[in-house]
Design a protein that fits this description.
2 copies of one chain form a homodimer.
Chain A lengths: L3 E2 L3 E4 L2 E4 L5 E5 L5 H10 L3 H9 L1 E6 L6 H10 L3 H4 L5 E4 L4 E4 L11 H7 L4 E5 L2 H7 L11 E4 L8 H4 L3 H5 L11 H15 L5 E5 L3 H5 L5 H19 L3 E5 L5 E2 L9 E3 H9 L4 E4 L16 E6 L5 H9 L4 E6 H8 L9 E5 L4 E3 L16 E2 L7 E6 L5 H9 L7 H7 L7
Parallel strand pairs in A: 4-10, 4-11, 8-9, 8-10, 13-18
Antiparallel strand pairs in A: 1-2, 2-3, 5-20, 6-7, 11-20, 12-19, 14-15, 15-17, 16-17
Helix pairs in contact in A: 9-11
Chain lengths: ~425, ~425
């Protein structure tokens, strides 16, 4: 066992979390760039989110790097950065085998989750995700064979079983159809299913992880963005009205990576490296690569470069750092030190894109056709590291002080929700 | 005298600068967001800038905060942040008089400039700016009554005199007409005039400061942006061909602050504060305010809030920090500590906008009509802090190490150009 359970709290990854005496819901609003929240609040189209900011707590915080979905979801449920749990991207280049491996398939997480800890302490916990790949990672120690919790995805809701997911498909759906995986409704299904679990008393702590389908496709203020925010806002209100204290963070922001004419602004690092050092000397891994490729053509603001040939690593790093469009090119050690990454999965050089630039491997290797002429909007760099952090209840004095003096991260949300909203006398 | 001149160097604001043995030009490419350079390099439309990056040095660095024109130009010529020289915006609220004062009119700079130091050491120095207000600040100790250097603006080129500017209007123009102050040509005039000074031997060190007219109006890849970059690139090439070592930085980046429908995304802090605390209790200063208001309607990503009424400062700070659209709301002390600002000109609360958001005072108080329906593109926040940093010559080993290990700023450019390109034996 990797967490300690005491009478009133659990201890997970060097933090203490009080056991809840009332319901809590943490929402990971995938790709919810702060610009969406700002615009919605200014135009008054998200009254419940605005009320959270006014009456509870609101701040702009950092996501874990790289600003991708899986590293951040796992960081949030662990309350700790990728260095601790090992998930630093979707795909990872295994030096030993020379193969690209989906990180969430590469074995168990390197750290226990808060969700599993709470479940072991007797709290009714449910994790609901949009995508099934992510559900598998978050279910560790929580749901499945002999475990007490619930963990399922909207994507595979209909085929869920009590044995594997802690709940059967028909119970999840309660008559609601399962939406298409490329739709705004997939995220709304997650929230609706969470609300049913809360209302029926089947869960006291909810982790609800949405999809960034809408944000990849539409800028703030677009009718589609407005409609989605309104729909999420309604459901956030319903969770609060049902008695839950709600925390909302995003896994990453979202930036338009297109030029004035709408074409994507892509720096193909594989091509540059091949031209400089010869083909086969280096390998560029895009850790945003995802079975849901239609969102972004596997183009984001962060890549890892592995040096296969006999090249001076620092020479390659310096070459990459001088390329316009590159914000930072860091050695493996420096990337891990500055951004809390796990060493064993880091590239020889980690490359963070400049603002407005997507990093790719080779021209022609990315499924740009999937964008169907839409502007490329994506994430991964420091430009998408700032994310909203909302809590529906006021913070106690200790956490107000913490917020005013420390750099907060999205993975502090369980700490703030479970510990920061307890009244001072407790 | 506030700098020390020795045989081979000057000492200004705690840094040593070697006297040049060949010509040098430092260009402040106003509003040159890294996304313009990245795009131009990727599409190959700026061959001379690309050659600088490949054969010399290129990095993404930080500007001084706030990411505005005057604080950064002065920081660059001082080689030091606003805390040292006192220019932390265009306008400043004088607590003693209750008036808003243009900072560059508020008395001499709080620090000497590298330009004046070089001129005193006998180097032929010329500063050429697009705007005249900025020229006045940069001319301190350099040009005018009894001083040896040259300092003039493109805006007022035709009325320049030897007595005040170190050169007469007709000599500056050499037959070239003075362009409109709202035109791309104003910046090109700066570069052309600098080139003439270099070729004629009238200047050995040039500081050439452009205008961000094009970048406020056009995104990367727009035909107007491309045309401007090509024109600047030609002139950078001409300076290099004429024998100059060239350094290029920007004073700040540029971000689209509009919604999907093209309307500006503005958070009116004055209105919010009035609604919360009552009118007249607080005063919001937009230090981007500028006689060149047509660029941006005095809307940017940074404002200072002064508390006039009997309000708890930290309560106001906490209120502002919870507003969606605010990235950071910092106490005066914290702003000065984190971003090297001068205390006497800081607000009681400094507010940095979130990505994609402009901060304003009151609805109706900003000249939005001047935008004439164009998208609002502006700067001031951390989203515009990253700027390109280019040097046309390779760096020596010490400066390569510096670049690999320290956070560089645009105000390191004179250090890198004058000291970093000296051969190691020197």
């Amino acid at each position: 066992m990797r967490y300690t359970v005491s009478d009133d709290s659990i201890f997970v990854n060097r933090r203490n979390y009080y056991l809840p005496s009332k319901p809590f819901a943490v929402i990971c609003y995938d790709g919810f760039d702060p610009s969406y929240l700002a615009d919605a609040a200014i135009r008054g189209i998200s009254p419940r989110l605005s009320a959270m900011a006014e009456q509870g707590f609101c701040a702009s915080v950092h996501s874990a790097m790289p600003s991708f979905t899986n590293p951040n979801n796992v960081s949030i449920v662990c309350g700790a950065p990728p260095r601790v749990h090992g998930i630093s991207g979707n795909y990872w280049y295994d030096r030993a085998t020379g193969e690209e491996v989906m990180m969430t398939d590469a074995g168990p997480l390197g750290a226990p989750t808060i969700l599993a800890g709470l479940a072991e302490a007797g709290v009714k916990v449910a994790a609901v995700t949009a995508k099934d790949k992510l559900r598998k990672a978050l279910a560790a120690g929580l749901a499945g064979e002999g475990l007490p919790g619930i963990a399922f995805s909207a994507e595979k809701a209909s085929t869920s079983t009590r044995a594997e997911h802690g709940i059967a498909g028909a119970e999840i759906q309660a008559g609601q159809p399962v939406p298409d995986q490329y739709s705004p409704e997939l995220s709304l299904f997650v929230l609706d299913a969470g609300l049913r679990l809360l209302r029926s008393g089947r869960a006291q702590v909810l982790y609800l992880s949405l999809s960034d389908f809408v944000q990849h496709a539409h800028a703030p203020g677009a009718p589609e963005s407005d409609a989605f925010i309104r729909a999420v806002d309604d459901r956030v209100g319903a969770l609060i009205d049902a008695g839950a204290t709600v925390g909302i963070v995003a896994d990453h922001g979202m930036t338009d990576l297109s030029l004035a004419d709408g074409s994507p602004n892509i720096l193909y690092l594989g091509d540059r490296l091949d031209a400089r050092y010869g083909a086969g000397q280096t390998r560029v891994i895009c850790p945003i690569t995802d079975p849901f490729v239609r969102h972004h053509g596997a183009l984001g603001g962060f890549v890892r470069v592995h040096i296969l040939g006999d090249l001076e690593h620092d020479e390659v790093r310096a070459f990459l750092s001088r390329l316009p469009g590159v914000e930072l090119a860091l050695s493996r050690e420096e990337m891990c030190r500055r951004f809390d990454q796990p060493m064993e999965r880091e590239g020889d050089v980690a490359v963070i894109a400049g603002k407005g630039v997507a990093l790719g491997t080779h021209e022609g290797a990315h499924a740009l056709g999937e964008l169907a002429g839409a502007r490329l909007r994506s994430h991964g760099s420091l430009a998408e590291r700032n994310v909203p952090f909302l809590v529906s209840q006021p913070l106690n004095a200790m956490y107000r002080r913490k917020a005013a003096t420390e750099q907060l991260h999205n993975y502090d949300i369980f700490d703030f929700v479970l510990n920061g909203t307890r009244s001072e006398g407790n």
